Amino acid sequence: MSKTTETVRKTLARRYRAEKRFRAYGIASVSIGLLAVVLLFSDIISKGTSGFFETYVQLEVTYDSELLGINDPTDQEQLMFADFSAVIKQSLRQRFPDVEGRTEKRALYSLISNGASYSLRDHIKDNPHLIGTTATMWLLADDDVDVYSKANIATRSETARLSESQQAWISSLEQSGDIDRRFNASLFTHGDSREPELAGLWGAAVGSFFTMLVTVALAFPIGVAAAVYLEEFAPKNKITDFIEVNINNLAAVPSIIFGLLGLAVFIGFFGMPRSVPLVGGIVLTLMTLPTIIISARASIKSVPPSIREAALGLGASKMQVVLHHVLPLALPGMLTGAILGMAQALGETAPLLMIGMVAFIVDVPGGPVSPATVLPVQIYLWADSPETSFVALTSAAIMVLLGFLITMNTFAVILRKRLERRW
Amino acid sequence: MQTGNLLLLLIAIGAAVWYLGYRRSHAVAAPLGGIRHLHSLPSYYAMLAMIWCVLPALALLGMWLIIDDSIIRNSVISALPVAALPTDEVGYNLLMNKIQNVASGALAEDAVQPYVAIAAEHLNSLRRSNTQLLTLFFVCLSVLGGVWGWSRIQPQLRARQRVEKVIQFLLMLSALVAILTTVGIVFSVLFESIRFFGKVSPAEFLFGLEWSPQTALRADQVASSGAFGAVPLFAGTLLISAIALIIAVPVGLMSAIYLAEYAHPKFRAFAKPTLEILAGVPTVVYGFFAALTVAPFIRELGDSIGLSVASESALAAGLVMGVMIIPFVSSLSDDVITAVPNAMRDGSLALGATKSETIKQVIIPAALPGIMGGVLLAASRAIGETMIVVMAAGLAANLTANPLEAVTTITVQIVTLLVGDQEFDSAKTLAAFALGLMLFLTTLALNIIALRIVKKYREQYE
Question: pLDDT tens-digit profile of A89-103?
Fold first, then answer.
């Protein structure tokens, strides 16, 4: 054995150990990343699943025409002003006849949501013949009841925001099978509300839709046009270089800066209204443009020069080559890039806070110039709300948002696989 | 008519002009013996006529919408009696709002001074005639343009070249949007910052140690002058970003190395996209995760070993931000590691080095500039990240290096200063733009350096 072999052999064990260690670091790093994905998703799913369900209480409701103040059930105005909460209070008193005193009674009434009287009204509107009769109805419970009834039975009395007598009433309702959990339809049909059990995502979803509509309508044509110009027509000069540097830098500018731009230029200088999807859409357009331009350029570049040369050889003009041949061939790649850019815009919050899309808006927006909020901002608003119920609701909203994003990304991947051509 | 309706009308007129132009190009070609005697295809003539119809009308609409509001305002204000004229800008805005509310019917006419009611009436009539005039001019211009374009259709007209010129011009305009955006950003933050530095000296802003932007409404209130020393914000931003990078750089780099050099292709095909999910999750979700799961967990952990941890600790925000930028670091590092030529790898292995020695002593040094660029880009990401810190970091501007305490960042302050009620023209509102300027300059510098390094590195091996 030579001397060199000797020295190498001596250190070999140590070197192999170092090799193993290094490998272990790598595995640990990948595991940390994967673990983060798992933790994030399991945390949100475990918190949010209960947000898709709401607690209902079953009560015997007597539609006393005197108590309601209705003598003609077909009269819409009377229905509008009828006191359905009195009916609910009466049936609660009947269910728990031994409740005495103002505070106790008020505690009893607070078990049922304020929204229940509206659902009773709608029910009577559809079935006017029910006036004067008694029926068993499932009524929406208050959010505190909801949290309490969803919580772990063994430990829930320690964390509950309910008084002891309220807890006793709920237990009694639970024992008689008068408490049930149903699908939270209001989450998908209502606008925002201060009451967690009535709050819904629909207003924000519509706001997101209008914002995305503006973004798509502006960002895709402008992005594709800019990419075509830069790839096919731009002369190699200082201005073109400057544009390229600009695009690369804009892609990495923090999104909140675009919000400042929107606030100062569109709202401050042009006097556009605050909180509207139009301005939000324009700001998000400027933000996603670099992404779309970069991906569109990549897909234009991937069209082989032989296509261009063949078209030119047949006498097509430069513009005809681009519009008739290059663009259709590059379109699938451009669409994929655009969808990914839209997904990024759909999840963006910070710039929209700057232009006032963070207001508390109950109404579902009617168009791109009516005040609105968007899904991620709604999540931000709910996450800031103090009520415990909003935690589940926020997580449910996050699941809805992630659902949209996953759909868009999957669609982009499928599109790429189906339409992408290998040259 | 509403702008949307005007646009629909324009589409209809444009389509009609296109059709008529198409017919006319056929008509002028017929006596010559068919369309092959035309200079261009008939659709180019039609297109040219349509361009004449649509573009000038669109330009008119854009200009009109930009200037009409201020003209109406000035006219309303100048019609007011001299005694009622507002003296300053705040009074002007108040009065304008009042007039607008009366005009839209939100405020009853008898609840305001008679001159406001008259002005509201005036405003309404101006608005009516404004829309009527706009509709009239818009329709006239589009029809005239269309007729002009239609009448110019001649066999010798070089229609294709002209249409292509116009299209190329429009393409160039689209590319200029990128420059306009940069210019818009620079001007919007610069102008407001200059106004801010007129109220607060730059030295105080850059080197002051105290940040409390709450200015009092009345002069005799306690703490009536806000303090605008931004050092605590810079320190807080750096602290949180540093925590994030301490998490993200080793984890991201090591995952990239493992996935590029060691992992089985099947595992790589699964792990890489899974890690990249982290980059696609909206930041508001991370914010929620940080504020409601990570922060309480860290606080309880601290309590159990006897440490007092703030509920909005820098550690929680930094940790989650680190997770967010892991895929950013790993995919950039992956790119540069796979770009290192195989010859270098093989050479090192052939000399008897183990794989990890090859990576540590050959690949990483070769890829270092690219990795540095990636880290700088990640740093600029972390500094500009907003939602995580808004939701999970504090508002109090503590000057501390302890990650267990609450700190605040530049982006948090921008959001808190600009969300909600804004005092017009106050130092408080303007401070947000000065912070925005700092943020923009910092991230811009980081990006430029990073892009330069990456570009130089790429040239080295190409």
Answer: 888 888 888 888 888
